[in-house]
Amino acid sequence: MTAVIVLCFTFIQERQQLKTKITNLTEEREQLKTKITNLTEERDQLLTNNMSLTEERNQLLTNNMSLTEERDQLKLERNDLQKFVDGLKCHQSTLYFFSSETKNWDESRRYCRERGTDLIIINNREEQDFVKNICGSDHFWIGLTDVEEEGRWKWVDGSNINITSGFWKSGEHNQPDDYQGNEDCANTHSSGCFDTKCDSSLKWICEKSILK
C-alpha cells in the first residue's frame, strides 16, 4: 500500500513537472514568436528605409545629372556668346560679326538668323573696303547667291548688287567664273569677292543695323 502511495505521489510530481515544463516552453515559444515578430517588423522597416534611401539617392543622381547638363549647356552658351562678342566689329551704324569657325553657306546663314541677324549685304564700296581690310587672307561667306537663277546674283533680302565695279575679284581668274560648276554662293576676301560651292566650309560675316 505504501509503495502504491509513493508511486502515485511520484506520478503526481512528474506530471506537475511536465506541466511546468510545458508552461515554460509555451512562454518561451511566445517570447520567441514575439522576438520573431519584432525582428520581422524591424527588417521590414529597414527594407523600407533602404528603399527610401535608394529612391532619394537615385533622385539626387538624377538632379546632379540635370544640373551637370545645365551647367555644360550654360558653358556652351557662354562660350558661344563670348565668341560672338569677340567677333563683333562696328562700322558707322552697323554691327558686324566675323566668325572664327567655318560652316557651309546655309549653316552660316542659319547661325546669323538664330541671333537676329543675317549674312552681310555689302551696299557700297566703303563698306566693302571695311570688310576686305578685316578679312585679310581669309575667305568669309556673304549674303549673296545665284542659286535660284544662274548668273543672277541676289542678296539675302532679294536686292541686286549695286556696286558697279571692283566688287568681284579680277585678274588671272576673273570672278564669278563658276569654275567647278554650281558655284552659287559668294564669299569675300581681301582681293575681292568669289563664287564658291555653297557646301564649302568657310568663315562668315553677320551684320545688323544698330538703328533698326
What is the name of the CATH superfamily of the largest domain? Mannose-Binding Protein A, subunit A
**Which of globular, elongated, flat, extended, rod-shaped describes the shape?**
rod-shaped
- Poorly predicted parts: none
Name of the CATH class of the largest domain: Alpha Beta
Structural class by secondary-structure content: alpha+beta
* Overall average pLDDT: 85
Number of helices: 3
H/E order of the elements?
HEEHEHEEEEE
Distance between the termini: 133 Å
Any idea of the CATH topology of the largest domain?
Mannose-Binding Protein A, Chain A
Computed over alpha carbons, the radius of gyration is 44 Å
How many strand segments?
A: 8
Q: Fraction of residues in helices?
A: 40-55%
Domain count, please report it.
2
Q: How many strands, which pairing sense, and closed or not: the largest β-sheet?
A: 8 strands, mixed
Residues in β-strands, percent:
15-25%
In the CATH hierarchy, the architecture of the largest domain is Roll
Write the layout of secondary structure elements.
Blueprint: H1 2-86, E1 88-91, E2 94-98, H2 105-114, E3 118-119, H3 125-135, E4 140-145, E5 154-155, E6 185-189, E7 192-196, E8 203-209
Parallel strand pairs: 4-8
Antiparallel strand pairs: 1-2, 2-8, 3-8, 4-5, 4-6, 6-7
Quick gist of this model?
The chain has 212 residues and is α+β, with helices and mostly antiparallel strands. It is built from three helices and eight strands, in the order H-E-E-H-E-H-E-E-E-E-E.
